Amino acid sequence: MTWLSDPRPGAACAIVAEVAQAHDGSLGMAHAYIDAAAQAGATAIKFQTHIADAESTPAEPWRRRFSYQDASRYDYWRRMEFTPEQWAGLKAHADERSLIFLSSPFSLEAVELLRDIGMPAWKIASGELSNSPLIEAIVETGQPIMLSSGMSDFAEIDAVVAQITKAGCPLAVMQCSSIYPCPAEQIGINVLDEFRRRYGTAVGLSDHSGTIFPGLAAAAFGAEVLEVHITLCREMFGPDVSSSVTAAEFKTLVDGIRFIERMNRCPIDRTSILPAVEPLRATFMKSVVACHDLNAGTMLTAAMVAAKKPGGGIPAGKLHELYGRRLARDVCRNEQLQLTDLE
To answer: 252: part of which helix (H) or strand (E)?
Structure first.
């Protein structure tokens, strides 16, 4: 059970494979990402639902000019569109692979489309926090919401969080740095604790670093949600490849997070493990031994004794206490000394 199926602070981390536009407008490629995310162990797969005429104009500038086939960013959004039936098919495929299907809406029309196909939770993208009509439409569903924060100050985040929590929607506030790819210095892992204290909600990280490291750190910080861009390979086309991890890296990330969660669920009592390691002490610790054959009555010096494996005799830590003591019997080279061997 993760936050997406049990949306409360402290739930297991929901690990979201963010496809965004990595499918490059190919329905077949979008379905391939569903299979890749499922094989990597993701909790959910997330797309972006763009309806060009509802969200943009031909005057929209490029974030980064990357396309060889689109004259404008508006044209690019048009090429990224799928029909409602195609979106329904993607959700059905995700359901078959036991993935939670998610897609960020960027217009009221997209909200309606995703609501109609039965999407169970919402991700509000960083650029939509000032889009009051869209947020109101999402809040009306009463479903869990992941709120990104990459382009907003605290005043804007505060207002939207208050709106969502007043409506009673389960909420995870996501730390996000809208830098692609994001360097370590700009990840802001410390903000997770700041969000948790400020809002009392679940928290998450939307990571654009192109590595698995921030995600592992977020899990160690107890994040309930992690969103990471995924690519089938680093030679793929698209604006987010440099900010993505490969499917193989995503699987390593998932395995690492689940390992961290098991560690955090199982604190150990140092005193309780000592009986179990007692046999190892005899094998790996060291005892005082004679450096060479010594006769009874010999006064021990530093040159005559040493600390060597195995344990079981006089502990190595007491070596210096034996200097000046006399042997009560003959001992052979490398023979362990016992306290009864000393006068």
So the answer is: helix 247-265
Helices (H), 168-246: 191-199, 213-220
**CB under 8 Å to 59, separation ≥6 — which residues?**
74
Q: How far apart are CA 188 and CA 180, in angstroms?
A: 14
Say how far apart CA 121 and CA 6 lie, in whole Å.
12
What does the alpha-carbon distance between residue 226 and residue 218 come to, in Å, rounded to a whole number? 8
Mean per-residue pLDDT for 127-156?
96
d(CA 13, CA 11) in angstroms, rounded, equals 6
Tell me the C-alpha distance between 295 and 141, whole Å: 90
DSSP 307-318: EES--SSSBGGG
Rounded Cα–Cα distance for residues 203 and 181 (Å): 21
Cis amide leading into 170 (omega within 30): no
Tokens 């210095």 sit on residue: 185
Residue-level pLDDT at 176: 95
Alpha-carbon distance of 294 to 64, in angstroms, equals 81
Predicted TM-score (pTM) of this structure: 0.87
Contact 91, 108 (CB under 8 A): no
Residues 284 and 307 sit within 8 Å (Cβ to Cβ): no
For residues 237 and 233, what is the distance between their CA atoms, to the nearest angstrom? 9
pLDDT tens digits, residue range 256-278?
Answer: 999 999 999 998 888 887 788 88
Give me the amino acid identity at 67.
S
Q: Which 8-state DSSP code applies to residue 126?
A: G
